Task: inverse folding
């Protein structure tokens, strides 16, 4: 396979974000608990100034990468696991099981996600694990559909028939023969689910539904909105995390778009 | 009534049932006193009120009897009472629903109209530079969460340029005041809807373009505009209708966030204050109402699909 040059920029961006998320202490000039005078404008000491608690905004920005990415990828992985197994089973077994699984998929698809996450987070408390669990368990339905239709396509092909004749078990055929074929369909979906989870996390944090002890980009924007960052014209407080969210989501989504060569298939399924 | 319709209706009913069960069980399964969970955490109410509520909701009785009471309340339109706001939840929500629907409806109208046209155009002219720029713009906008788009617009047009008002309506709303206050929120949401639909439509047109019938139409000497907007658009619109059902929930959530940012008097602000005060009755009621609205949108999409796609009318499998 020829390497597509359009991959370079998004990959580079994601690599930088991952690096920053893994080793925040290396890049951040201050810790998340260090405090100075509040509401400082950008200066040589504080590149992006300080927030309402006197924390260095640039350092918060760097520490924020960790949770945002973590929540995105963790819920993406969870969604992939659930969606792929649902899709594989539904496509392979057909009949009542298929009917049941696809019925469940349709129902999950209808449920309004953000209000549901809000009510769950309000009751269960704003822990990142609740967020991952809820976001992951709510966004697998499109994966299940794609996987199912792909399995339906290949289940009657000759090599599957051969594997069945050789007496391989269903589980083995699914994992060894079908999964590798389905895999290329899953990857762009994983990427899109991750991006969607990052957006949801940012939105929930904006409502104040994130752990106050945990620094995230959405939480920073929320703080700027609540503690008069707008009234004071402190654009250097809310704009950098906003740009980070947008760039992160854009980098991750564009991987899926490039992978599909054209935007149509990703968006349509 | 064919099989597909009855299957759809079963699914919507189950979905509604899940929502109702969730709203019923969440406060009752939380650790601690369920009365406190049903009232909200940050309010101070006297013990008498708590006791009265326990009796009214049957909290001292077994679960199935509680559920019966709960269902009876729901059917009579009683969503409970918010002790934080001292207001009936159903009244509160109904007084705000029209504003949210106004914002969502107008934005969707604008967004869909322009999105469909622009998507058809970019799909048809997909090789030109202008089309590529427009597509890239659409992708970028659809990657921005709606509330960030709102924040950016708010900061630029309200704080920096001062073109639009800071807050929602105070004076008695007349049509000009409403238009003045709603213009920027509607623009924000419409831009988001526009971007999403443009991308979907573009992809759909790209697929239709390669089919034989546009070429056949061309060979008959039908003018190009008529082929694009008469033949191709009609076929390419189907995925948009399918997406309408899913997108409605998404757009509605976006509208809630935009209302928070622009301080509009819709469901969004109700939700925001309810979250800040942990006002559970209001949150549960909101969730129920939003879920019902989304299910209705799904029903509308199904009906629309039936009107547009003759195959569905004949009861064929899609």
Result:
């Amino acid at each position: 396979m020829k390497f597509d040059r359009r991959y370079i920029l998004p990959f580079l961006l994601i690599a930088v974000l991952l690096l920053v998320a893994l080793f925040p202490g290396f890049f951040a000039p201050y810790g998340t608990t260090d405090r100075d005078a509040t509401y400082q404008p950008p200066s040589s000491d504080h590149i992006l100034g300080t927030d309402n608690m006197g924390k260095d905004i640039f350092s918060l920005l760097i520490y924020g990468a960790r949770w945002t990415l973590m929540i995105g990828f963790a819920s993406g992985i969870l969604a992939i696991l659930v969606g792929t197994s649902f899709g594989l089973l539904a496509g392979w077994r057909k009949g009542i099981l298929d009917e049941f699984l696809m019925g469940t998929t349709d129902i999950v698809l209808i449920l309004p996600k953000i209000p549901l996450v809000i009510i769950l987070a309000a009751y269960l408390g704003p822990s990142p694990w609740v967020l991952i669990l809820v976001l992951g368990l709510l966004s697998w339905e499109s994966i299940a559909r794609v996987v199912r239709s792909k399995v339906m396509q290949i289940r009657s092909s000759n090599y599957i028939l051969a594997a069945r004749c050789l007496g391989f078990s269903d589980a083995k055929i699914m994992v060894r023969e079908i999964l590798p074929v389905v895999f290329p369909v899953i990857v762009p979906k994983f990427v899109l689910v991750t991006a969607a989870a990052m957006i949801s996390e940012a939105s929930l944090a904006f409502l104040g539904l994130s752990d106050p002890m945990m620094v995230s980009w959405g939480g920073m924007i929320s703080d700027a909105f609540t503690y008069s960052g707008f009234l004071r014209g402190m654009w250097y407080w809310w704009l950098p995390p906003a740009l980070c969210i947008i760039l992160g989501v854009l980098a991750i989504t564009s991987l899926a778009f490039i992978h599909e060569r054209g935007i149509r298939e990703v968006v349509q399924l | 009534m064919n099989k597909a319709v009855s299957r759809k209706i079963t699914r919507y009913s189950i979905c509604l049932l899940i929502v109702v069960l969730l709203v019923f069980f969440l406060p009752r399964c939380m650790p601690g006193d369920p009365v406190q969970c049903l009232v909200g955490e940050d309010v101070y109410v006297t013990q008498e009120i708590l006791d009265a509520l326990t009796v009214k909701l049957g909290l001292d009785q077994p679960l199935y009897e509680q559920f019966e009471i709960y269902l009876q309340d729901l059917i009579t339109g009683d969503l409970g009472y918010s002790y934080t706001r001292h207001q009936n939840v159903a009244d509160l929500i109904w007084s705000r629903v029209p504003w949210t629907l106004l914002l969502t409806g107008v934005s969707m109208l604008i967004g869909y109209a322009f999105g469909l046209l622009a998507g058809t155009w970019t799909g048809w002219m997909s090789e030109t530079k202008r089309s590529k720029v427009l597509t890239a713009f659409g992708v970028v906008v659809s990657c921005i969460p709606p509330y960030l788009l709102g924040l950016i617009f708010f900061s630029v047009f309200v704080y920096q340029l001062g073109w639009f008002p800071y807050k929602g309506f105070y004076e008695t709303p007349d049509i000009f005041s409403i238009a003045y206050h709603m213009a920027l929120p509607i623009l924000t949401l419409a831009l988001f809807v526009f971007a999403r639909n443009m991308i979907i439509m573009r992809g759909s047109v790209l697929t239709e373009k390669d089919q034989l019938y546009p070429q056949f139409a061309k060979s008959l000497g039908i003018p190009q505009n008529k082929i694009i907007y008469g033949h191709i658009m009609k076929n390419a619109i189907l995925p948009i209708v399918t997406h309408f059902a899913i997108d409605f929930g998404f757009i509605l959530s976006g509208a809630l966030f935009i209302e928070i940012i622009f301080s509009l008097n819709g469901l969004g602000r109700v939700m925001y204050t309810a979250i800040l005060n942990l006002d559970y009755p209001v949150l549960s009621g909101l969730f129920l109402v939003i879920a019902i609205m989304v299910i209705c949108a799904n029903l509308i999409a199904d009906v629309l699909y039936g009107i547009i796609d003759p195959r569905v009318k004949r009861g064929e499998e899609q």
The CA atoms of residues 29 and 177 of chain B lie 46 Å apart. The beta strands of chain B are 81-82, 87-88.
